[in-house]
Amino acid sequence: MRASIASLALFSLLLTQVAFADNWGHWRGPTGNGAAEDANPPTEWSEKKNVKWKVAIPGKGSGSPVIWGDKVFVMTAVNSGSESKPQAAGGGSSRRPGGGQESGRRPGGGRDSQRRPGSRGRGRSRGGSLSTLDFRILCFDRKSGKILWQQSAIKAKPHEGTHSTNGFASGSPCTDGKNVYAHFGSRGLYCYTLAGKLKWKRTDFGKMTMRAGFGEGSSPTLVGDKLIVPWDHEGQSSVYALDKSSGKTLWRTDRDEPSCWATPLIVENGKKKQIVMNGQTCARGYDLETGKELWRCAGQTQRPVASPVAGAGLVFVGSGFRGSFLGAFRLDGKGNIEDSKSVAWVIDRDTPDIASPLYSSGRVYFHKGKSGMLTCVDAATGKPHYTVQRISGINSTYASPIAAGGHVYLTGRSGTTVVIKDAGKLEVVSTNSVGEGVDATPAPAGKQLFIRGEKHLFCISK
């Protein structure tokens, strides 16, 4: 009987491990680094090869899908027809983050937003009259692509515009396998059960005013019993910790930062967890339990977008608009750590802008600005394995690189994904396309890869 109980316990543990390996509950994966250590999706596909299913997604959005068990979740905003004149959104000559000329508004920044929808190339922010939008979360069957349920969180007229390459639902949901959380920024935060029942909502955060009308798009982060919600804009910026079961605010810490689209990263230093956040003024670490700022380091560029990643005992934070900065920070620093031993290394050229870096196998991969040119450095030292290598087929990037099955997947806005070896030497394995533009970061889970395009959600599977 003891042997049977032990075997049953081991079998249950193995099932849990397999289930975890098949999940991708956050836009940058279970570790927040963009890597799925146990996933092994295909490295080759086309419109007719290794596409298990594709399903049309209504509305415009560039948030990445998340996967748990047999369900796939995405967010979108669907035009419901009525129109309203919004408040001014940053002046007539503004462009999206990284686009070019802007009005003379306070500089600011970024999003987890590595996910940008819509038209190719540079585009002006969308002002004028705006339609009432239906902000939705959709749940699809992982095996077939059949829609299981969709919920309309709220119907609302945006109070300001967004960039032409950005939508009004650009964040990604997150899930812990019990509930799924959809954050629509100024339109509120909504918690649903995996069956689609609304559990709680928060619509009292106020309204964001984003730099030059670039639009909103950062995503929340789950850790333990907490949901970490970033709130950086041209007004009073903050970071919140909410009780994930009730939505109640556990703490709020104000930030002297302008607009930022980056998503918070949770890291461990000994037995304590920190929240690491990007920012135009400083990269910062906060105590998870209290929200107290632990350390900060200046050096960032304007309106940072890229989210932090961590590994090798370091956290990596960078930006690449109107300047270049990528810093590797030790987590034991206190106060202002600039020029201290808590800064392991710094790179001051060819750093990422919209797409976040990737940490995998002791290496950090990142694009130069919004281009497809790729650099790979040793995570511990910052010394390059290779620098600014042109990736044929990829010219412009919003999606962040991901790693799975010993490979790195690099996705361009044209819909081309180039697969390379996860190694210190650049070796291209394949070049693939889904036949439409892609701004959302793909999601590897198990033996599948989920890609959200401009019009469809694709399941790539042998």
Q: What is the total tally of β strands?
A: 36
What is the count of helical runs?
Answer: 1
| Residue fraction in strands | 35-45%
Largest sheet: 5 strands, mixed
- CATH architecture annotation name: 7 Propeller
**Mean pLDDT over the residues:** 88
Helix content: under 10%
Amino-to-carboxy terminus distance: 41 Å
The CATH homology group name: YVTN repeat-like/Quinoprotein amine dehydrogenase
How would you summarize this macromolecular structure in one to three sentences?
With 462 residues, this protein is mainly beta. Helix content is 4%, strand content 40%.
Descriptive account of the structure:
- The structure is a single chain.
- The radius of gyration is 21 Å and the shape is globular.
- It is built from one helix and 36 strands.
- The strands form nine sheets. The chain has a five-stranded mixed sheet with strand order 1-30-31-32-33, with no helix packed on it.
- The protein has one helix at 2-21, and strands at 35-36, 51-56, 66-68, 71-84, 125-126, 130-141, 147-156, 162-163, 174-175, 179-183, 189-193, 198-202, 221-223, 226-231, 237-243, 249-255, 265-269, 272-277, 283-287, 293-297, 309-311, 314-319, 325-330, 335-336, 343-347, 358-360, 363-367, 374-378, 384-389, 402-404, 407-411, 416-421, 428-433, 443-445, 448-452, 456-461.
- The chain has a single domain (22-461), classed as YVTN repeat-like/Quinoprotein amine dehydrogenase (Methylamine Dehydrogenase, Chain H), CATH 2.130.10.
- The chain has 462 residues and is mainly β.
- Helices cover 4% and strands 40% of the residues.
- The model is unreliable at 8-20 and 82-123 (pLDDT under 50).
